[in-house]
Each structure stands twice: as C-alpha cells, then as structure tokens.
Amino acid sequence: MALNIGWLDDLAKAKDRAGQTGKPVLLDFFNPK
Amino acid sequence: MGAVTYPNEQVVKFVDYNFVPVQIEVSNTALMSQFKVNWTPTIIVLDADGNEVHRVVGFLPPEEFIPTFMVAKGKWYFNAEQQPEAQGMFDEALRGYPDSSAAAEAVFFLGVSRYKMTHDPKPLREAYETLTAKFPGSEWTKRAAPYRLIPQ
Questions:
Q1: What's the CA gap between B68 and B118, in Å, rounded?
Q2: B150 to chain A, closest Cα gap in Å
C-alpha cells in the first residue's frame, strides 16, 4: 500500500497544529494542472 | 513534485515526522499574494507564528528534497536558539547527503550554530576551511570568506 504525505489544505490549521506539535510548517504552493 | 518526489517513501516519512505539511493551490490568490509566490512549485518553511524560515522555488528530486529540508529544519531550530538540535539536523544532512546541493549550506550553518553556542570563533574558521576544500564554487563558500581572517 502506497504511503502519502498527510497534507492539510488550511494554513491556519497547519500553524495551529505546528504550535501544538512543536514542528515547523511545510507550505507547498502547487499547480494541480 | 507530486509525480516523483512526494510519492517517495523516504520523503513521506521525512515530511510527516519533521513538519506539519500543508498544500495550497495556485487558485488561492490571497495566499499567493501574501507570500509573494509567482512560480510553482514554491515550498516555504514557516514557524508556528507564520515567520518564514526557508524558501525553495523549483523542482527537487527526493535525494535533494530531504537534505534541503533537513537544513531548513535546522534553521528553524537555529532561529529558536535550539543550537544542539540545529546542529543535529545540519550534521544529519551532511552525513546522509554529503554530495547534495544543500550540503554547503549545512556546513555554513553548522559553523555559525557552533559559534552561537560557544562564542568560540574557531567553528567559523573551520566552516570556511571545509567549504573551501569541498565546495569551492558554492555561494556559501563566498559568504564564509570573512571567516578566513579568524586565527586558527
């Protein structure tokens, strides 16, 4: 079974989780096309 | 990135262990403008307050992605004055990926971090010596040039 990165799609949630977990945010701007 | 790098098993484990990953589509013009992003892929490392720590524009294969963001995480520790943890990340990038494009930056920040922790300038001189020997063409070697004046 393939592994996938557990991407969030909400920067505010990511920053909140970063504060809770003590990790930095990896913010990827991408073009799905 | 989505076709080659992000499906890579080592990349998946590395990202999920070290970061809170978030993907934003280019259609989100508000965030594109806020972060002044004009090209994709653009990957930015932020602290929990939203301060930018590191930015990469363009494709990275897995063997470059991992050391690049090891260095980025080291810089995140460095900014938080967590120097032993920062040095651990820079060391890990150097040991695991000594020929990567990120290696020279890891040498530079390893020296700076050691200096910040000890206030002994010798690690800066050592960083310059290592950069000159191993990465003579790197921009980080040029940035470390003033450290050649530090007595050995």
A1: 26
A2: 34
